[in-house]
Amino acid sequence: MSFFRSARPYIIAGPCGAENREQVLTVAAALSGMNVQLLRAGVWKPRTRPGSFEGHGEAALQWLQEAKQRYNIPITTEVADPAHVELALKYGIDVLWIGARTTVNPFQVQHIADALRGVDIPVMVKNPVNPDVALWEGAIERLEKVGIKDIAAIHRGFSGYTAANGYRNQPNWPVPIELKRRRPALPVFCDPSHITGDRARIAEVSQKALDMHFDGLMIETHPTPDAALSDAAQQITPAQLATILAGLIVRDEHTHDMSGQEQLEYLRQLMDSLDAEIVDLIARRMELSAQVGAVKQLCNMTAYQPARWREIVETRGARGLTQGLTQEFITELYEKIHHESIRIQLAVLEQAAGKSVKE
Ligand SMILES: C=C(O[C@@H]1C=C(C(=O)O)C=C[C@H]1O)C(=O)O
């Protein structure tokens, strides 16, 4: 069984960075008495700008090793190159993780994978900084190819130009959900600390993640968060972590409640037939698009028509609002439909252009 399936939810906690021996031992002592499966601490910190706290490297690995021995708790740290891997193994790190700024670079992931060839150690892979599920999966595949068997993914959100919607990193939930769809057996954890960047919102995002079938949580925990050398605003104390964990509702994918099961099946049947109608309607709409494309070809008009598109966004959004749907949702939905509609029309225009050249 996977190392990461020993608890549900599987909880990883510990400071953003290992700052000194006392800090590491203090937090390890507190967490080892709680329902925490793995102690995390960064010893090499990839920071946005130079001059910030970048970790204590090998010295910090010794503190982690001491914490593991004293408090009998497995330990994990981030590795970003083969030298990190070598040192982490030397100091008995139990689980490695690859950070978002490394996952984004296939060359670097391959260097790490090569250093792990023949090593039996669980590895966690954070999402790349950009919302690219194939790149995330690609990093996992590189590890699998060198024989790493126990792999988990961590969703830490996606970096943007600014913090939007109150999140430090955009959660963009469809991306990890797609990863889970592609790989049903892969444990996928959520890192609410990096997604929120704000300790006040960790409980809310943790619950949301569990309700979206995430298998565990990685939560940054520090003895004195406000004094932390990195990511102070998003770290919490072990006591605060205990409160959050105690408040989480853990729900199951399935139920043994027969009447609940029956109601669910009934509602799903209704959805099945509505979805069949939706798909048929979309297909009919796309047929109309092809016809519009043919008219545009005859009249020498562009496929994309900004004024009409604006009108669609406004009118469909307004109708959505009257039905209790958000304008944002309707816009996103229509963006997809519009994109496909344009693709179909471009194909019509292209085909016609090919024909006229041949004639
Ligand atoms: C269908 C048209 O072509 C494009 C596709 C649209 C659509 O699918 O709704 C809207 C405007 C155009 O960008 C059109 O011009 O009406």
Mean pLDDT score, rounded? 96
Which CATH architecture of the largest domain is right? Alpha-Beta Barrel
Q: Per DSSP, what share of the residues sits in E-state strands of 2 or more residues?
A: 5-15%
Q: Structural class of the secondary structure composition?
A: alpha/beta
Shape type: elongated
Give Rg in angstroms: 25 Å
Distinct small-molecule ligands in the complex: the ligand C=C(O[C@@H]1C=C(C(=O)O)C=C[C@H]1O)C(=O)O
Low-confidence stretches: none
Order of helices and strands: EHEHEHEHHEHEHEHHEHHHH
Description:
- With 359 residues, this protein is of the alpha/beta class.
- It folds into 2 domains: 3-247, TIM Barrel; 258-358, Chorismate mutase (Chorismate Mutase Domain, subunit A), CATH 1.20.59.10.
- It contains 13 helices and 8 strands.
- It has helices at 21-32, 58-71, 82-90, 100-103, 106-115, 133-145, 174-182, 192-196, 202-211, 238-247, 258-299, 306-322, 327-358; strands at residues 10-14, 38-40, 75-78, 95-98, 123-126, 151-155, 188-190, 216-220.
- Strands 1-2-3-4-5-6-7-8 form an 8-stranded parallel beta barrel, surrounded by 5 helices.
- Helix 5 packs parallel to helix 6 (133-145).
- The mean pLDDT is 96.
